[in-house]
Amino acid sequence: MKNEPVIDVRNVHKSFKNVYAVKGIDFKIFKGQSVALLGPNGAGKTTLMEMIEGIQKPDTGDIFINGRKWKGNERDLHRIIGLSLQETRFIDRLTVTETLKLFAAFYELGQARVDEITRIIGLDEKTRSYVVNLSGGQRQRLALGIALLNNPQILLLDEPTTGLDPNARREIWSILGSLKKHSQTSLVLTTHYMEEAERLCERIIIIDKGQILKQGTLAQLVEENNGDKVIEFAIEESGTAIHRQRLESEFQIVWDDNGDKGFITLSRIENQLPEFLNVLNRNNLRLRHLECRRKTLDDVFTSMTGRRLSE
């Protein structure tokens, strides 16, 4: 039997007044795949995700979930999807257990499933705590637990770790990593964190300004020009603006937000690096930092847009 996609997005467009949010996006996701929609803030990721979730309707184009459109199939599709939005609002004066039981009732699930989810999300010691007293990371784990209650075939997560500290982010990653190992759930998440996309997803779709720039496995994305190396550097403050301009006239440089750190991609590092150092010397620019490394997802994004993913 042919492997049919669980999510099939076909030439989808979406506008809001003067904002063209999604511009003709196509992709397919298959059973058991973990896919990241990676892009900066304002790229159109959330709008696209909300159309997949059935919250928004495309202006044109089609979205199929397990071969069916949302219209007329809402009840059946809601039962196979788990979702967590960018921001989840709870009833503050309910406990963790009461909150999970409330949502479990929508699926006619009992206490056994509530207890199982509580263990999965690591809130065993917080069952009687009011939601209002949970930390940001604990609230996000609770939101993830609600999304997992119905053993979803498809799990949709919109920016699941935005605003969390590194420890809380890793806790979410650990839960999702375990889910990948022990289930055939198809995972789709939006993120602007490169490490999150690399760690959780075997396939990555890079989105910017409502369009897909590139998609594929991590290896396919970063190894397309495998010989390329990235030089990351910083120069002393004594370097004047005109000297920096001379440097930019000979090399294609992308600067970080503060203009302190520069990035250049070299295809022939053995020849081009000495040239780069000579240009620095001629313009009396002193290096404060220099690092040579392999390309990352951020470098791929930069090569296509001229700016860093975090901007």
Shape: globular
Q: What's the pLDDT, averaged over the residues?
A: 89
Helix segment count?
11
Report how far the terminal alpha carbons are from each other.
45 Å
CATH architecture annotation of the largest domain: 3-Layer(aba) Sandwich
The largest sheet, given as strand count, sense and whether it forms a barrel, is: 6 strands, mixed
Q: Major sheet: order of its strands?
A: 5-6-7-3-8-9
Do you know the CATH topology of the largest domain?
Answer: Rossmann fold
Number of structurally distinct domains: 2
Q: Give unreliable regions as ranges.
A: none
Q: Write the H/E string, N to C.
A: EEEHEHEHHHEHEHEEHEHEEHEH
The CATH superfamily title of the largest domain: P-loop containing nucleotide triphosphate hydrolases
Structural class: alpha/beta
Q: Which CATH class of the largest domain applies here?
A: Alpha Beta
Helix content: 25-40%
- Count the E strands: 13
Q: Strand share of the residues?
A: 25-35%
